[in-house]
Amino acid sequence: MSGTMLAVDGLSRRFGGLHAVADVSFTVPVGQTLGIIGPNGAGKSTLINLVTGHLRPSAGRVSVAGRDLTGARPWTVAKAGVARTFQIVKPFRGMTVRENVAIGLLYGRHGMGRLASALAAADEVLDRVGLAGRATATPGELTVTDARRLEFAKALALRPRLLLLDEVMAGLRHTEIDPSLELIHGLKAEGMTIIAVEHVMKAILSISDRVLVLHQGRVLTDGAPRDVLSDPRVIEAYLGHRYARRER
Amino acid sequence: MGARPERAATASPEQAAGQRAPTQPAPAATGAALPRRRRWLPWAIGGLVLAACFGLQSQLYAGQERTVATVFMFVALAQAWNLIGGYTGYACFGQVVFFGLGGYTTAALMAHAHVSFWLALPASGLFAAVWAALIGLPLLPLKGHYFAVATLGVAEGTREVITNLPSVTGGGAGISIPTVGPDATTGYLGNDGFYVLFLLLAALSVVVVGVVSASKLGFALRAINQDEDAAASLGVNTTRTKVTVFALSGFLTGLVGATYGFQQVTIFPARLFDVNFTVLMVIMVIIGGSGTVVGPVIGAAFLQFVSEYLRQHFTEAHPFILGAIVIVAVILLPQGAVSYAGSAWRNRDFSLLDNIRRYRL
Question: pTM for the complete prediction?
């Protein structure tokens, strides 16, 4: 459990005149879970997309386990062991749940050559996220909770070293959050490095070893979860400066 | 009206399926999940159909034989389009460019270079495949109607280039393949020969699509079709996969074009790059069922036979009636005949009205 899993250095991305992500630098050591929070439009999803290759950075560097992946295409990043979930779930609707999961097993880091073995291995991943009984269902038949589980299972099928979770709790009821938290804690226990973008504070506090706050594309602060959440600058970013002054 | 119109009318397909799901596991969405023991069955049926088509030949008059050979040609063309338009979801509206290039490659090789047809045929397929890869690299990043329009433009542009290279292609006056005398490199194959050749090309295209469909590549194609970003984030090299399948589709189309060119003997740009070929491929795949192995075969056979029947019995109104049939078919079977038959059989609900509700509302 040593070394750096992800290093982001001076990362920037402009959309026209807008600095969606501006000069962001941080590192995540192997085995750590980093929570990323910030108000809407802070650049959280853009940051994830820059790391996974869905967007190319305007400036800066990204490296995973010492390998430079700046501007690499998404499949190269995936094969390097970086898995992600999408904020809006992206199932393959015409395929069964089992086949959805098989894609990552066939094309991921340890790309399997044979369909039959990938489909068999998919069942193990489904078992792990609690979808074992729905292997032959199509994604359209799943409940909201199960659709999130499928999104998880597809990412885990890559057998990732680094897992990026983009708001996996969004839209879930309180009781539905607990199974997801349990799953993430299980992955933490196995030593998986995780970055979780999340709005649900209960989830952030539960899983994060460290929290980074983005505000207007920049890193506002970065530290232990409790300290960060009581930081007046963070409260101001979320609720405005008047509210922050009154709290003081 | 079917037995369960109320539910079908009020619930979206997802909801309706969700209510059923706990008691009745959803059927496999694809052929790849067919029970292992029955995987040989489609191949056996296909083999029987192929054998029957060989036997059929001796029972037909010359005119009928030509009609059936044309059906085989369209089966092969529709199946080739199915790879890129059906499985991958990239509606290519310039597919005829590979057909035309195949025909012209064969004509030029046989007329100018005195190459045997049996060498010109694979060369035409390869040339079409290379052209597909070359135009695929810049065009396949485009999505939806942008891709459709761009490929349409390439096909029209290529026809103009062919028309304006008279030294090689004969220009607008056309080019003739020598089929008799000392210049003939390969004797004309005749009705029987082209029947067998088109039948073999149809069989080849069905086998290629069947193999691709149940392979690792087929999984990648369907994933790209459903959600390209998600496919890429799971390690699928979407650029390479799309270019590969486009080249494969172009290869098959080029082979058919080469055979068609030889059959016609004299070919013209206006005929070989006729956009109607593309339109027919698209309609056949959509009516039969895009992204399935059997769908394009059914679509091509249905449309071609109906068209031929109408041509003979309603000389004047033939295009009008054919158009009406296509419209009705697309309205009643929005997802194709094969998908309709599959879901109707599973749900024991053969009502076409329920089918429309399921897929259009």
Answer: 0.87
